[in-house]
Specification:
Length: 357
Amino acid sequence: MKRTMTAPLIMAALIGALPHLASAAQAGNTQPPAAQPALPAPAQEAPAPGATLAMPGQRAMPGTAPAARGQASAKQAQFERLLRAQVLLDRAHFSPGEIDGAYGSNMRQALSGFQAARKLPVTGKLDEATWNALNEDNSPTLLTYTLVEADVAGPFRPVPEDMMAKASLPALGYASAVEGLGEKFHASPKLLERLNPGKSMARAGEQIIVPNIVGKSALAKASKVVVRDSTKTLMLFDAGGQLLAQYPASTGSQYDPLPVGTWKIEGVHANPVYNYNPKLFWDAEPGDKKAKVAPGPNNPVGVAWIDLSKPHYGIHGTPVPGHVGKTESHGCIRLTNWSAAEVAGLVAAGTEVVLQD
């Protein structure tokens, strides 16, 4: 993403500067449910004539067709298994991206990275050996979280697509409370809504069910960053070449390909101002002018900018976490905001960055 950046006036500790991304455990308001809650059932297909299907989260009525009950039960079991695997991958620092309880390309790459690090056959599938290795972490899949005032206070406002309209805003905050909670717990807002039918996620004091991504093991500082275009991943390695962590990434396009080569990190900046220069973009709107876009999680480069020695290129967050690893970027390395914040806390000026096909 060919962008010049303005460093913050004060370089705060990265995670501390990102209140929506700080560990919820620090707030003291998360706890395992007394019993693991039943997960709402997935959407069901149209019933056979005369069948009665249960509503999500409810038991099927006696008249429910056995085939429909079996199909719903199988879908529910698969959803729960994938959801747990995604949570455990996130806890192991092999991010599946946005946790959503579904198997996709980001989860496949997370599984492949975890398997390689654990010296398991690399299949990219949730096979039994991988399932058993993940479950060496016996943490619960879900936690009960009590919403606090900071979660719901806002201000929340729609974020315009147009860059000039973005530049007119005093801050680029969340569009809704559930969007912020999604980033806080590394989850799709749709997943949070599914886990919490009938709950308000805009009222302080409300207790909701969230993925258990808190209390993860700490990582050592990274000595090298490797970004691989073919797998759409960013990997961190220690001084001995051991893989520490892996994250899904968007890595360029045909118009702005990833600048393959070896570079260095020039600096790390939390909550950056974004300096927009339309001359650097092939798809800039006619009439666009240079502009400054205020900081915030919905800033075009999210909550962190890691500046590379390649001019105008960096590693950064994004306002659309569900697109990471699935859509193109303008040549930069785009991560979810929570991954960008974690990486930013593990690298420093001078860290080697290798960009590969």
